[in-house]
Amino acid sequence: MANIENVEELEKEMGYKFKDRELLRHALSHSSYANEKRSSTGSNERLEFLGDSVLSLVVSEHLFTHLKDVAEGELTKMRASLVCEKSLFKFAQRIHLGEYILLGKGEDNTGGRTRPSIVSDAFEAVIAAVYLDGGMEAVRNYIISFLPPELSRGKKIIFSDFKTALQEVVQKNPEEKVCYVLISEDGPDHDKVFVVEVRLNSQVIGRGKGHSKKEAEQLAAKEALALMGYETL
User: Fold this and answer.
1) 93: closest CA among 124, 130, 119?
2) Which of 48, 107, 121, 124 is catalytic?
3) Fold of the CATH domain 162-232
4) Which one of 91, 99, 121, 137 has the minimum C-beta count within 10 Å?
């Protein structure tokens, strides 16, 4: 439960002190909790709606300002990668947000605190709470603290679909050929682990391990891109 003590602890994790802590408590209130407690203020869903828009604006502005030579289409892809559920869940984990969310007993008992959809939605609600409490400058600083610092230095970062990105790099030299080779496949059918190498003209330039061949190939490509000096997330 978000009593005064652990709300203060979350503020420390966030690096932001609320003038109105009720905003933060509201942002932490999942619908299961609000329904169970018949809360007069309701759940965090309206705050999530606002936070989604604020997040998109701040990230768009940051990319526009710092990546001056990147085309609109690529900026759109980068923004989508930064504000998707997977990224927001990672951001939320950095402040251990799942530990502070107010959940109904059933949701809590079935792993709601670690469910990406719940945690990422709460992260957006908290963004709205910061915006309402401290204004645009406060929420801008808060959001930017989660973004890769390389962006502020004007460096383009590859966020996803590393295979496509690697292929685009290799295609600059038509004589170069890249291929993926399955090295091993271990474990029971319900929990297999695949190891894949990516090779450039038979030379190994990356290796990845995952619970599907696709995941292993993506991670192998990510390692190869990092080896080539590209920033990846």
Assistant:
1) 119
2) 124
3) Double Stranded RNA Binding Domain (3.30.160)
4) 137
Q: Tell me, yes or no, if 69 is annotated catalytic.
A: no
Q: Please identify which of the residues 52, 85, 161, 215 carries the catalytic annotation.
A: 52
Q: What fold does the segment set 4-154 form as a domain?
A: Ribonuclease iii, N-terminal Endonuclease Domain; Chain A (1.10.1520)
B/e letters for 160-173, b = 16+ CB within 10 Å, e = fewer, are bebbebbeebbeee
pLDDT in tens, 144-194: 999 988 777 766 666 667 888 888 888 888 888 999 999 999 999 888 999
Domain with CATH 3.30.160.20 in the chain: 162-232
Q: Is 124 a catalytic residue?
A: yes
Convert the pLDDT of each residue in 108-157 to its tens digit: 999 999 999 999 999 999 999 999 999 999 999 999 999 988 777 766 66
Distance CA 1, CA 7 (A): 9
Q: Where in the chain is the domain with CATH 1.10.1520.10?
A: 4-154
